[in-house]
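Q&A FORM
Asked by: J.P.
Topic: structure of Fatty acid desaturase

PROVIDED:
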Amino acid sequence: MKVLENAIEIDRLTTDQEKIDNVTRSITDHGNYLRKRYPILQYQNTLGASVMVFSLAGMIVTGGLYINGSIPAWGCILINALLTSFIHEIEHDLIHRLYFRKQPLAHNAMMFFCWLARPGMPSPWLRRNLHFHHHKESGTDSDVEAWITTSGSPWGLLRLLKLLDGFVFGFLNAVFAPGWRQKVRLLGKIIRLNTPFGLLYWGCWYVFLGYHLYAWLAPIMGTEAYTSAATLKLMNIVDSAVVILIAPNMIRQFCLFFISSNMHYYGDVAPRNAIQQTQVMNPWWLWPFQLFCFNFGSTHSIHHFVVRDPFYLRQMTAPYAHKVMAQAGVRFNDFGTYHRANRYCMDHSKTRSRG
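REPLIED BY: S.T.
REPLY: Here is the structure written out as C-alpha cells.
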C-alpha cells in the first residue's frame, strides 16, 4: 500500500514538473516576444539605472520641498513611500544580478544606493544568499526569508506587530527563544544585520516615538513637557528624517510584508514546486497595499517561474502569464490563507481561480 502511495506521489510531482516547465517556457517566450516588439526593453541596464536615479532624485526633491514648507508631511511621506517601492524592485533585480552583471562597480554602487534608500533592511549583499535559498526551498521550514516576513504565523496582534516593526519582531524572537545561548545568538544576529544603517534607522524611529509620546502625555499627566534648545534642534532633524525616509519605508515595508506573507504558502509545500509556492493576489481592495509594493501580489508569482525578467517586464507579461499559470493550477485569490496561517492545504474547494 505504501509503495502504491509513493508511486502516485511521484507521478503527481512529475506532472507538476511538466506544468512548471511549460509555464516557465511560455512566459519566457512571451518575454522574448515583448523584447522584440519594444526594442527599448533591450537596454535593461539603462532602464534599471534610470528608474534608480529617478527614484532617488524624487526622494531628494520631495524632501527639500517638505523642509521648505512647500508640501505637507503626509504628501512627502506618500510620495517617498511610492518611490521606495520602485527602489525595492530595483534592489530585488540586483540581487538576481539583472543589471550590470559584468560591471561590478556599477552593480555594487546601485546595491549601495538601494541600501541607503531603505536603511531599515539588512544589506542586499547579506540578503542575496537568503533570497537564493528562498527560491530553492520556498515555503519549507528552512525558508528563512519567508519566515522573516511572518509567513506561517497565525494571524493576531503579535503577527501584526511583527509586520509593523521589523526590529521589534527580531527582538521578540530573541527574547522568547529557548535558552540563553540561543537568545544571545539571535540578539547578536539582529545587531549584525542592522549595522550600521539599521541601528541609526530604528534608533531615530524610537527617539521620534518616545519624544512625541512624552510631549503628548505630559499635559495629560498634569506636568509641563520640558525641552531644551538642543533637544528641539535634534528633534527637528529627527522629525525630518522620519518624514523623508523612515515613515515612507515603514509604509512600504508593511504593505510589502503584508502582501508577500499572504501570497507565499508556508509549512506544507512540496519542495521546489513552483505551483505550490505562491498564489496570485489581485482583488481590487488590495490596491492600497499593492500601490506601495509595485503590484507585488499580482506579479511576484511570475518571478518564481521566470527569474530573469526585471520587475517592469513582469508587469507587462502579467495578463498572459496569469492565463498560463491558472491553467497549470496556480491559485488565485485564495483568501483562506489568512486563517490557515499560510498553509497550502490541499482542499481546492476553498480557492477561487481566475484566468
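FOLLOW-UP: The chain has 15 helices and no strands.
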